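Lab notebook: predicted structure, single chain.

Context: the supervisor wants predicted structures on file for every construct in the current expression panel, including those that have not yet been purified. This is the next one on the list. No modifications to the sequence; it matches the entry in the shared construct table.
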Amino acid sequence: MNQNLLTRIAEALERMAPLPAYENDISAANAFIWHPDPDRLEPVLEVARVDLNLLIGINRSRDILLENTLFFAQGLPANNALLWGARGMGKSSLVKAVQAEVLARGYGLKMVELAREDLPTVGRLLALLAKEPAQFILFCDDLSFSSDDQHYKSLKAVLDGGIAGRPKNVLLYATSNRRHLMPRDMIENERSTAISPSEAVEEKVSLSDRFGLWLGFHPCSQDEYIDMINGYCTAYGIQLPLDDLRAQAIEWQATRGSRSGRVAWQFFTDLAARMGVKV
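Prediction complete. Output recorded below exactly as produced.
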């Protein structure tokens, strides 16, 4: 047997061998990103987030989610939460800001971001987190499912936990533009094609029912939009006559064709740059 063949066999066996286990250091950070194959938690040393006090116009959702998270951080019963509604209204920002507020109050709380396409690996992630002494928020951002998507079945394992149950130190927070996580045409298609339409629809719609908290985010009014920008200006020390600020902000939203917390921040970013203020 020649040397080249032996080398190729050795390389093939090496590729087939299981990857070495990754050593996760939970103390390395307060936030992580889950990466499968090999399974590992990537530390995020600096989370991109907005201060909780700067999230204007979502006071009720803010207070409910903060209270629920504080309960969980103290080891008390707490609900999984679905934050749904209009784009750019602070759903993701609220989750990250609430974790920062809980940490600032002296409670240990970790956050792990799980991508939708990695949902089939969530069982392995839960098994890993269950062994740790910390409390974890499992964060799924912009969660939704298409008509041929079976990932939603994996999500049920997080919400219900199957026989073993969800680990007591893990809570799921998800954001979505859809209240039921499924597109309307998918639900209507199930009604029209299934042998038992009501049961087929119920299986998919019931997924969102498994969240204990539903927090709705709706398009903001023009006054709320201006208030958001005023809050940013106050926080970063930018002074501008209110009429001038209002006129510029309204012109900005008109060019964008939309009005939301995200648009307010984008306008403020442009304003701060023009004023020579770093944010």
